Amino acid sequence: MATETLTLGKALNTGLRRALEDDPKVIIMGEDVGKLGGVFRITDGLQKDFGDQRVIDTPLAESGIIGTAVGLAIRGFRPVCEIQFDGFVYPAYDQIVSQVAKMHYRSRGKLRIPMVIRIPFGGGIGAVEHHSESPEAYFAHTAGLKVVSCASPQDAYWMIQQAIASDDPIVFLEPKRRYWEKGPVELDAPLSQAYPLHSARVVRPGTDATVLAYGPMVRTCLEAAIAAAEDGRELEVVDLRTLSPLDLDAAYESVRRTGRCVVVHEAPGNLGLGSEIAARITERCFYSLEAPVLRVTGFDTPYPASRVEEEYLPDLDRVLDAVDRTFGW
Q1: Active site residues
Q2: Quick one: which of 77, 92, 265, 281 has the fewest CB in 10 Å?
Q3: How far is it, in rounded angstroms, from Cα 298 to Cα 268?
């Protein structure tokens, strides 16, 4: 089986290329995705190879991009929409919540909306306002949408293809500050053999505490686990991967063994996904818990200026501090 070392961004590009090759109904559309190849070059070279009828540079109008994609999806195409930055998705929020999420239900199952909305999300790249948002809870809260987030090049390559092949609308969150991180990718396996799209995965086994994360925070939690091991404490890290529907079976099994749980995400803590996850784990694993489920999140403020963003983002020290507090009960 062929394995190559790719950046997460290149893995996405390669996955998009394979989806375009496999299905002539796949269309990529968004601002600057064609000639420029996207702000982060995720679609680099695709318009050159597949033409401007399948890789389409759109006007600067997010609502128009999503609205057009809904019509294309109803007519049998599989549009893949790029939202250039996370903070630019809000002009399209009405279309996503009122049309994309509702069409299948509204038509009593007669219409499918097989479209993917790619959103580079999260901070850590020194960007200006509206470029470092974490909007996942808005979409995970919306019935009719599925929401996933990749954390490694391997998952990026396979998950983007699985999302495009799905008949459901999927919000696909890409951790933009991880675009340049490298990892091995198996390229030639059939899509049917890929790890299930809506399933969590243990990415580091451990015995002393469970740490749950997704997207950009998976790498942070793995680094925290390595640091904790130097002090003799083994953390189990679970990559959630799917945010709606949430798959917590691996988390439940882990917490029942470790007795402790910390949930980590960049988004603000108030009404964030960590709240829902903590509630479910408490309900299902109450008699196994040795301490309350703790959360490590961004703060309940607008995302700060880039010079101080490292004070906002959860880091290794904050994760380890939360783990330490779970042992204080």
Answers
A1: 131
A2: 77
A3: 4
